[in-house]
Fold this protein.
Amino acid sequence: MSTVSLHFEKIIKNHKIEKLGYLPCDRLKTPVAYLSASIPLWNLTRESAGIGLNFGWHLGGKRGGMLIQSTGLGNLITELITLPVLYHCPLPIFVSWRGQGAEAIEAQTVLGRRIPGMLSGLGIPFSEIVALDDMEKINQGLSECYATSTVHVFLLSPLLWEKDHFPERAPELDKTGPRMNNVSIQITSYKGTPEFSRYGAINLIMETIAPQTVLICQIGYPSREAFHIKDRSRNFYLLGALGSATLVGIGLAEARPDLNVMVIDGDGSYIFNPNQFFELAKVAPDNLTVVILDNGAWGSTGSQPTLSAAGLNLSSLGVAAGMQKWHRVSRNRDWDKALAKGEKRIHFLIQPGNAPVPPIPLRAIEIKERFLNAIAK
């Protein structure tokens, strides 16, 4: 009888959590085996991806959460603080708290002991769940999480599941081995001068975007320029978390299939977090369009060159990850063709340089609240 795992599953379902981002930990395999039979999982490629996906999921009116190992907390601090904390979004994070009990890995112990202090320093509410009697803390913590729109971390001791029975036919046991698709990549080189700067490209996009389409803008100058060109309540401006815009778009598009979602992203963002290619290859909602504006530069920090300035054919990484060929745009007529064909993956080559526009004069919570009002059903 799997008393603790079944009780955990019941609490999760009672709070109407509809999807969980998951990165495996062998100490979580028993509760996950029960959960995954009734609640869909994002099988994450890195912990921080779960923050972006959950953030978009929340914007779409859904409840999500994460299941990760305690070592993964260190891999998502920036995204955690500049997405759910900054924009006041509820997010429960269930953590396999390594270093407890008979932990054989010294690195897990030295980090695990510091986790409560780290969370306290970050101002993140947390609960320590070490026995069945502590499970009510999860119920209370989830209620507070949703009532106050905050992040809450639940530190789950591996000792919780020690006596639980692992189901014989669990998804965790599906060990199929590697399966590799045939990949053929033939993407032409590019030499020349694109027609548009980023400002000009965003202006072109805003001239042609449908009134009901929602727009997710990457941090820095992409958001600033989009705000200056055509601010709309259906524009969502990211103020932090580089490498998360496409992930937010995926989460929102999944949660709200009735919406057309467009993401304006950048070459620096994808080079910084190429896992966006992997997540997009796995989960590619039909109502999501992603535009990578590629100027070969870290535009918002002074136009230092990125790898695409040295010859990296960025869209080829997407094809290698399993996506269809990206549609290349460098001129006005290329954009028109992309729109006419309904292209969903667009690699938009642009000139480096930033327009002299000021920061967005809106606080994060203002951006979020007017966006939610605009897309309310």
About this structure: Residues 181 and 194 are 34 Å apart (CA to CA). The chain has two domains: 3-173, 198-375. The chain has a mean pLDDT of 92. The chain has 15 helices and 14 strands.
